[in-house]
Amino acid sequence: MAMLRPALRRLLPHAALALVLSLAASGPALAAEAPKLPLLRGVLLDGAGSLFSLADSGGNATWVALGQTHGGWRLESFDAERRILILGRDGERHELALENARILASESRATTAEADALLEKIRFEDMIVKSLEIQRQAMTKALQQGGAGQNLSEAEKARLADFQAKVAEIMLEEMDLPTMRKEMAQVMTEVFTAEELRAQSAFYSTAAGQATLEKQPILQSRMTDLMMPRMMKAMPRIQALSMETLAAGKAAPDSP
Length: 256
Prior knowledge:
- The strands form 2 sheets. Strands 4-5-6-7 form a 4-stranded antiparallel β-sheet, with no helix packed on it. Strands 1-2-3 form a 3-stranded antiparallel β-sheet, covered by helices on one side.
- α2 (about 110-120) packs across α5.
- It has 7 helices and 7 strands; from the N terminus they run αβββββββαααααα.
- It is an alpha+beta fold.
């Protein structure tokens, strides 16, 4: 062992140099693996939250919400006045400036597949069924509480409700929801861009988006409750106007 010590002492400087060179060579490789800052291409501001279009180095953009991550960076906050998005990663914080005010519609044309994916997310068929049911209930309530409805017996009210339920069923059958969904998807591609459809899809994937879907029928019902009394209040004036129009038509000479 004593004979090896001089040789070992001669090897130590070379080993130390090799270690330094190895660390120097690995340094840039480690730095290259760090997540790169994305580009902020667009912002969708909404009362329930905000979505941000972030693009990678290849130009591929996706919509991301605050609290989510993109390319290793977490979206922490957004300064709307300065148009600055704050990103965080491993204790680091970076400010990301908005490149463009919005994404131009010409950048990407929406497809029916993207539109149908959004219709699936918002439960299109279920939405139509609930909407019809809300309208049926509102009409039944309005008729029963109106002047003529107050004179109906319980049996007559039941027959009226049954009649309206059958009318709603016929309307639902004639709508042919599967075909209507395909036609609606086509219309959406003509109205929205691909980015706008993806942004909506991203929103409805959030808790706020799901809450909007669940509570929209309740909101619609409440709105109908507010509107129907006002509409019924206007009926006497509308009937009077109808009578005046008919009377004026009878009094006027026939057109040549």
